Amino acid sequence: SAGGGASHPEWRGTFNANWRMTDGTAVFGRLRYIDSMKNRASKQFVGEDFSGPKSVFYFDTGVQFDVEPMTFRVGVNNLFNKLPPQYAPNVQSGTDPSLYDVVGRRAYVAVGLKF
Length: 115
Description:
Helices cover 4% and strands 40% of the residues. The protein is mainly β.
């Protein structure tokens, strides 16, 4: 973590997979990765023990159905309800909401119309 609560992991990644069937149905998944980080306070206050956040994986999934001229999509983000890592010092309530999923598991339904 660096100044002002902003976090800068060395590695971040997203992997998307989509399997589309001939009947217009699709199953999709997304894996989001955020690398572990050292807490900046550990460098500022040598000899003190400030833990940094460990690496985190989030998994999102869903299914889509095409019924011309409409598309229906149902999905879940953060399927396993992974909580954001808490770390000291208590900046942004102990986590970085601009980097980690602070909402938790959530489902959605979407309908699209082609015209």
